[in-house]
Amino acid sequence: MESNFKMECFRHKLLGNKQCILEVTSDKIIITNISDQPNKRNELDINYNLFVDFKVKKQQLYAIGLITNKHHWYYSDNENLINLKQILGARVVFKGVNTLYNPLQQIGQGTFSNVYLLQSKLNNLEYFACKCLDKAQVHEKIGRQGLFDEIQAMVALKHQNIAELLEVFEGEVSYYMVMQYYDLEFTDILKELNNEDIHIIFKQLVTAVNFMHENGFMHRDLKPENIMFSDSIYFLKLIDFGLTTRDSGRCKCGTPGYVAPEILNLDTKINEYNEKCDIFSLGVIFYKMLTLDDLFQGSNHEEILENNARCNVNFDMLNGNQKIPKQAIDLLKKMLQIDPTQRIDSKSILEHQYFTVEEQTHNNTINSLNQLSRKHSSVLKILSPIQKKNGMFTSPFSMHEDDCIEKEAIMQPIPTVIMKGGIAKSRTPGRTRKLSKDTTKKYQTSDFEDVILEIKQSNYRPPKPSQLSEMYNK
Question: Which SMART domains has this protein been placed in (predicted)?
Answer without folding.
Answer: S_TKc
